[in-house]
Design goal:
This protein is an alpha+beta fold and 173 residues long. The chain is built from 6 helices and 8 strands. The chain has a 3-stranded mixed sheet, covered by helices on one side. A 3-stranded antiparallel sheet has the order 3-2-8, with helices on one face. α3 crosses α4.
């Protein structure tokens, strides 16, 4: 379960990967049960916008998912991605097993050693506790609304960058 800004961006990217079986947008990491989008947007729930992924590890590994995650968002901005500001847009990895925790921490340490960013990586690595699906209108948002201004200005450039960097990992269209 990954948080890296707006879930519309993450969903559009991860849905196009070979080996990713399911991508669901929603909320995780907070203290309110069954929150909705409007409530999460207040910043008072502690939840982040996330995507919950199911993947086939014989086709794509968790480390591959992490590599893409750190390529498609800025893990150095606290509670923010671009113009989206608030704790709901934080960078976080909600791990589902000790192996995922160790992989995430190792990957972050590798990035720190490589000094890929001049600022400190603020991505939180936290145990997964609950996932609450987003409302239906958020599902496949980019695919269904490619001409919406936010999609044109924010989602589309991220998707295009991803497709260029990871062309070999894309599902056949």
């Amino acid at each position: 379960t990954l948080a890296g800004g707006c879930f519309w961006c993450l969903e559009a990217i991860y849905k196009s990967l070979k080996g990713v079986v399911e991508v669901e947008s929603g909320f995780s990491g907070g203290t309110v049960d069954n929150p909705g989008y409007e409530l999460v947007c207040t910043g008072n729930t502690g939840h982040a916008e996330v995507v919950q992924l199911r993947f086939d590890p014989s086709i794509i590994t968790f480390n591959d998912l992490l590599e893409i995650f750190f390529d498609i968002h800025d893990p150095t901005t606290l509670n923010r991605q671009g113009g989206d500001v608030g704790t709901q847009y934080r960078s976080a990895i909600f791990y589902h097993s000790p192996a995922q925790k160790q992989a995430a921490e190792s990957y972050i340490n590798k990035l720190k050693t490589e000094q890929r960013w001049s600022d400190k990586i603020v991505t939180e690595v936290t145990a997964f506790s609950a996932f609450y699906p987003a409302e239906d209108y958020h599902r496949d948002y980019f695919a269904n609304h490619p001409n919406q201004p936010y999609c044109q200005m924010v989602v589309s450039p991220k998707v295009n960058k991803f497709r260029k960097h990871f062309a070999q990992k894309l599902k056949a269209e």
